[in-house]
Amino acid sequence: MTDRLDAMRAAVGPEDYGAAAAAAETQALFARLWHFVGFDDELTAPDGYLVRTIAGVPVVVQRFDDDIRAFRDVCSHRHARLHTAERGHGPLRCPYHGWTYSREGVPVGIPGNDPCFQLDKADKAALALTGYEVARRGRFIFVRLIPGGPDLDIWLGPLGAWLDAVSDGFAAPFDQAPLDWRADWKVGMENVLEVYHVDSVHPETFRTVTEGVWKCAEHGAHSTGTIGLTAETRRWWEGVAKRLKLTPLTAFTDYDHAIIFPNLAIGLTAGLMASVQTYEPVYAPDGTVRPGRCHLRYRLSLARQQPGASAAARQGVEGHLADFNRRLLAEDQSVAEAAWAGSQQADRPALLGHNEGRIRAFHAAWLKEMGR
């Protein structure tokens, strides 16, 4: 019995959810791997921007005409943050003293430069913002802080097709928000990798819309899972598609789920709704990680709409789906926080059944990328 239990133990132990592991992940995972930051339609304005914290570093992703660049979001003059909102539009300009930066990150507009600083071209180039790699797959924008490693398309492998499908088939998000969870980000990811908890945690939400067997596949560091939809759920979505004139993604007819390592999760329902989530560590202003904290950032989108649909009907459906999703996430948050708190008192790794194989694959990817 002991040998059988040992074989079922997770490769990641309780200590891997604590402070030391969280600090090591900052450079080993989040600075070194591609990190999803948002959609390019969030940067539609000529000077649209997004601000994210990656591996403890504040990063601004800024559009310059048809080009998208990423820089450390800290002014070279007196170190103020260049953008104070998470997203918006406006030039890459410091709100403190008005220093304005070019697409190369060089301060090209310095109020009072001649009388106060006398900075020449070489001086300005030396004050350029720290830049980071940016890559796109469809509408998905990724940033990598430490250069090197595989190109984005190579890293995504066959999961790149998922991003293409979501990019082509879904409209801009109708609901999105960051949620503060008191749990390690890995606990959040593990929760979406299995449906074993659905009967206990989601009896009136997720359980009411799905049925059948959770069919899973591994794709390098990434994985996918599919479960069927109930007949009633299919009829409801067929009615929504007809009423709102939505064009479904015919390749995705069930609840289809994918993760892109380390922390991007995508769920597609009947090929008509996409839920895009990231589970992000939380950092202090000095860049140190806060163990046992993560931000779940979610985005909900419906399939693209043909002309002539009722705006009021769409608004009603979106409101219903947003409420349903918030209930579901509140249920997940409660158990994820309980699981993380318990892990801090555990003295041995968790037990994983055959129905939790995607978690085992996620742990294997984590150990590999951590160099262990």
Automatic annotation (TrEMBL):
Pfam families: Rieske (PF00355), Ring_hydroxyl_A (PF00848). GO terms for molecular function: 2 iron, 2 sulfur cluster binding; dioxygenase activity; iron ion binding. Residues 34-143 form the Rieske domain. InterPro entries: Rieske_2Fe-2S (IPR017941), Rieske_2Fe-2S_sf (IPR036922), Ring_hydroxy_dOase_asu_C_dom (IPR015879), Rng_hydr_dOase-A (IPR001663). Keywords: 2Fe-2S, Dioxygenase, Iron, Iron-sulfur, Metal-binding, Oxidoreductase. This is Phenylpropionate dioxygenase-like ring-hydroxylating dioxygenase large terminal subunit. It comes from the Bacteria. The keyword Thylakoid does not apply. Its cofactor is Fe cation. The keyword Iron applies.
